[in-house]
Design a protein that fits this description.
Length: 311
């Protein structure tokens, strides 16, 4: 069991929050990834969704992601105050009270789910509700402080946006969005464990049982390498299976080779500055990997549509 810290923030404090503080509660960087992966899921889905409904779907998914971020910051206000990376967030700084953040997050969550359900379809609305619940309750409130597998299991929440978007476009599910889900799900551990390797002091100070803190950096490096191998194999598999085309296949092979190279480099370099640099390099490349891997899909879909029109 992880010992909890007792940093408290009174809900009665009147905040001096500005617009930028509320935007910070939404975790804009995380939201941008949510919007991007959801947009890819929406674009490559078969059929035609009215542009207004398509925009509504993406906005609702974005707002749902922001709601998750706000509720995450509300619950983690004590550990955020202890970590260098998060100490400047609005609640630890005293710009927004915990009760305001909770109310903001709950309002956004209800609005995004009900709007998506009523205006688009309830399968998408239910999946969005499950995504928010999983991130806030299962990951934030349960897994993150209690197990070193927090990122592994909790990564399911961050992997669901393209599934939600596909459901919004089609009213159903299919292998393609499940593949996208698996790619993000398997990408999450090596991405965040690379960050945890050079931020382990932060997590230790806050008593967050990230893998480098609990199992040590060497065990983390091995897990990063193993997950990367599985990730690369799964990411390439849609090409031979016929779900995605040649452009995706070539891109996945080249990017996969890069991910493996960086993961092996992290595994090999164990001490000092070279180890830190290797972990930082993998963290940065993993962002590029996911972006380019997903970006090629709508481009490939557009090229196929254009060729179909021409021929």
């Amino acid at each position: 069991m992880v010992e909890q810290h007792s940093v408290e923030y009174s809900p009665l404090i009147i905040s001096e929050a500005g617009v930028s503080d509320y935007i910070a509660l939404l975790k804009p960087r995380v939201m941008s990834l949510v919007v991007f992966t959801a947009l890819v899921g929406l674009v490559i889905a078969p059929g035609h969704l009215h542009p207004v409904l398509a925009i509504t779907s993406i906005l609702c998914i974005a707002v749902g992601g922001g709601a998750s971020g706000a509720l995450n910051m509300w619950y983690e206000r004590d550990v955020d105050a202890l970590m260098t990376r998060t100490a400047n967030r609005p609640i630890p700084r005293g710009r927004i009270s915990s009760s305001e953040a909770a109310a903001f997050g709950i309002t956004l969550a209800i609005f995004s789910v009900t709007t998506l359900g009523i205006l688009v379809n309830w399968l998408a609305g239910a999946l969005l509700a499950f995504t928010i619940f999983f991130y806030v309750v299962v990951y934030t409130m349960w897994l993150k402080r209690w197990t070193a597998q927090n990122i592994v299991i909790g990564g399911a929440a961050g992997a669901l946006p393209p599934v939600v978007a596909w459901a919004a476009a089609t009213g159903s599910l299919a292998p393609q969005p499940i593949i996208l889900f698996l790619i993000i799900f398997l990408w999450t551990p090596p991405h965040f464990w690379a960050l945890a390797l050079f931020r382990s002091d932060d997590y230790a100070r806050a008593n967050i049982p990230m893998l480098p803190v609990v199992a040590g950096p060497d065990a983390t490096r091995l897990q990063i390498l193993l997950y990367t191998i599985v990730l690369v194999a799964v990411a390439i598999s849609p090409w031979p299976l016929g779900y995605f085309g040649v452009a995706y296949g070539i891109t996945s092979v080249l990017l996969g080779a890069g991910m493996l190279w960086f993961a092996v480099d992290v595994y090999r370099k164990r001490t000092g500055k070279p180890a830190t640099q290797a972990a930082r390099a993998l963290f940065k490349f993993s962002l590029l990997y996911l972006f380019l891997l997903f970006a090629v899909l709508p481009l490939e879909a557009a090229a196929n549509a254009l060729m179909a029109m021409v021929w």
